[in-house]
Amino acid sequence: MSARRAFPKTYLLMSVLRFHILTLMDSNQPDLDLVFFAMADGTRRAVLQKLGEGPASVSDLSEPFDMALPPFMKHIKMLEKAKLITTRKVGRVRTCELNPDTYADLENWLHEQRRQWDSRYQKLDALLTQMKGASE
Amino acid sequence: MKPDLQNSFVADMQKSQITVRREFDAPKDMVWECYTKSDLLDRWFAPEPFTAQTKSMDFRPGGHWLFAMVSPDGDKHWSRFDYETIDPKDGFTAQDAFSDEDGNINRDMPVSTWEVTFDDRSSRTLVQIVTTYDSPEAVDQVVQMGMEEGIKATLAQLERLLKTMS
């Protein structure tokens, strides 16, 4: 869904915070110490912010940092271990993406908006049928 | 709803915008009335399990519609629509805000702008509603509010269930 792309940074950070709280409530919680440890580092936070604009390859993500690839990969692995991102490798390119669970509440809200419109419009269909019957 | 009627819901979070397009098997005059007359709006505008209840309606540019969404246990959630432009039978624009029962707008809550257009499709009518929020932060605020409402509704349901069990 396009809603996953190009989130503004404030939105992303709020989502990540909420993700922490939700994981606390979840019985199947990832290690929270790991999440906080992952978030404590400036490079990793910058990577998360960049991923707020959409999925990106490891080499694109590493570009702004004056860092060799192996230490940068350690940061990526840390974020993945904390379940803040997911990665997949196609050929020689590894692409990173924010963990979609982070966006669960926005998607739930959109789902509820859609349900509300469906519900309203079913009532409107019935009303129009009744009005048409009365005018005939 | 007839299966061939057009029906779409598209969210563009970059623009903080939701677009709902829906075709109705009725002439445009009739559909227009349903969107602009309060006695008709009261019969469909609230999604299940709510009902809509109008307190006052003044459908003209600068006028407003004050109404409540009434929950099954009688709780009233007040809103007001302030009409900005009206192009009879073709469309209107309005601002949707949360208010109290006297129509005082709650400025702590985000306002959204509605652009509603009506299109003739022979014996049918296509209605498009574009809802736009001021900013992504405003969307985030209503999402959060929706979550709180959802949690409250779940707890209320749980309470009812527990009562039937005891």
From TrEMBL, chain B:
Q: Where is the Activator of Hsp90 ATPase homologue 1/2-like C-terminal domain?
A: 25-163
Under InterPro entries, the record lists: ASHA1/2-like_C, START-like_dom_sf
The species this protein was found in: Maritimibacter harenae
Kindly give the Pfam families that the UniProt entry links to this protein.
Answer: AHSA1
Q: Which family does it belong to?
A: Belongs to the AHA1 family.
Q: What is this protein called?
A: SRPBCC domain-containing protein
